[in-house]
């Protein structure tokens, strides 16, 4: 975009197509949007509500139109009530917004299963329409997603941003051939195995929709889809939302680095109990999450020899609440060895939801500014951000505020 190009006005209605639309994060997004619209909630937790963004022409979350896809049975209202039972939201808010939650539910369709990621024991909790998706070729799933996005865009009567807030996939690195769009599309046409997150991203970008990957799954993190995004003039961002322990690490680790204190070991241990925790109990799914958490810390400390490790365990009784304990062993002047320990406890989904709203606003803004490819200025929101190697939260946030200043109106 040229510096003097005028940013288009925010849309009257902005569609938000949520993948995993009845999951805990998406449910908190829905409750948040409903509560902001009715005035029952304030903007606490929204980065884009800070003064630095006051003159930035961002879409109003009160004008979001939510919809999407989901593979599980149930209703959005039931998901919201379950979160309220756990103390994440109030039952009064759920009751007051029940009609609007039901309206959103009417715009949520069945999703597609990534066959190897679901076992027969869970079949009864899966939408019957989705079970047929196991046999669908990747190209047919893309066609179906493109059609659903087109239908959703028509119902919204405005632009659409796609957000992947589904459970973490089993880790599957992109093949070498997927460095180019030609190689990826060749495999897609040939019926090769493509992770669902990559199909979501491909369908979204092909449809001209900005794409946000809030998960550690592959998404648009490989060369072919960034190439497609640039060709289509579509912004995208990811991956793996930074909401808790890693957020603290990315703010705290620079202190040790800048004070020239030698970190000898950094051990982290996470307990979580929601469906994401259940999914991450599987080592194949946990690998990507652990890698993103560990990689960020190593990059920040600038010492590949430092001992770092992250553990994740599923504790069903915790529900949506997550506890992380970190132990830092470091050496200071005179060789003195010292320690720092901290515990972080919070609702994963309540921390994530406002960031999803922020990212939708920023992705839409980037699209109206005719920016394409990875949104490097959104790095502060992710454990493994695309388009930049910067992992220092303070520097990431400075870049975001510089972007906001450039996008501000007089």
Low-confidence stretches: 116-135
> Which oligomeric state applies?
single chain
Q: In CATH terms, what is the fold-level topology of the largest domain?
A: Rossmann fold
Report Rg: 21 Å
Strand content: 15-25%
What are the secondary-structure elements, in order, as H or E?
A: EHEHHHEHHEHHEHEHEHHEEEHEH
Mean pLDDT: 89
**What's the total count of β strands?**
11
For the record, what CATH class of the largest domain applies?
A: Alpha Beta
CATH-derived architecture of the largest domain: 3-Layer(aba) Sandwich
Q: Number of folding domains? A: 2
Spatial order of strands in the largest sheet? 3-2-1-4-5-6-11
Helical content stands at 40-55%
Task: Describe the structure concisely.
The chain has 410 residues and is α/β, with parallel strands linked by helices.
């Amino acid at each position: 975009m040229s510096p003097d190009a005028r940013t288009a006005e925010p849309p009257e209605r902005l569609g938000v197509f949520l993948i995993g639309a009845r999951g805990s994060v998406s449910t908190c997004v829905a409750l948040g949007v409903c509560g902001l619209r009715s005035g029952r909630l304030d903007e606490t937790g929204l980065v884009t509500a800070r003064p630095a963004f006051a003159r930035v022409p961002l879409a109003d979350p009160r004008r979001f139109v939510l919809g999407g896809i989901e593979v599980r049975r149930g209703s959005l209202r039931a998901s919201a009530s379950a979160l309220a039972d756990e103390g994440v939201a109030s039952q009064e808010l759920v009751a007051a917004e029940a009609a609007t939650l039901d309206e959103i539910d009417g715009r949520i369709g069945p999703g597609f299963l990534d066959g190897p990621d679901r076992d027969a024991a869970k079949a009864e909790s899966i939408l019957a329409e989705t079970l047929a998706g196991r046999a669908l070729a990747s190209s047919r799933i893309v066609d179906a997603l493109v059609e659903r996005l087109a239908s959703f865009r028509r119902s919204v009567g405005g632009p659409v941003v796609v957000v992947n807030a589904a459970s973490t996939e089993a880790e599957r690195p992109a093949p070498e051939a997927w460095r180019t769009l030609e190689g990826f599309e060749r495999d897609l046409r040939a019926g090769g195995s493509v992770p669902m997150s990559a199909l979501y991203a491909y369908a979204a970008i092909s449809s001209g929709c900005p794409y946000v990957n809030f998960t550690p799954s592959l998404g648009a993190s490989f060369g072919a889809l960034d190439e497609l995004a640039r060709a289509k003039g579509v912004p995208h961002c990811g991956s793996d939302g930074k909401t808790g322990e890693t957020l603290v690490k990315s703010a705290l680790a620079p202190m040790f680095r800048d004070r020239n204190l030698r970190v000898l070991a950094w051990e982290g241990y996470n307990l979580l109990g929601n469906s994401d925790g259940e999914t991450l109990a599987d080592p194949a799914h946990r690998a990507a999450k652990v890698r993103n958490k560990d990689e960020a810390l190593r990059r920040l400390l600038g010492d590949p020899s430092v001992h770092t490790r992250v553990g994740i365990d599923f504790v069903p009784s915790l529900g949506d609440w997550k506890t992380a304990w970190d132990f830092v062993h470091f050496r200071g002047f005179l060789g003195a060895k010292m320690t720092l320990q901290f515990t972080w406890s919070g609702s994963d989904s309540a921390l994530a939801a406002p960031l999803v709203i922020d990212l939708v606003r920023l992705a839409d803004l980037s699209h109206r500014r005719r920016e394409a490819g990875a949104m490097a200025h959104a790095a502060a929101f992710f454990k493994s951000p695309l388009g930049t190697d910067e992992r220092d939260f303070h520097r990431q946030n400075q870049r975001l505020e510089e972007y906001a200043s450039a996008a501000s109106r007089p």
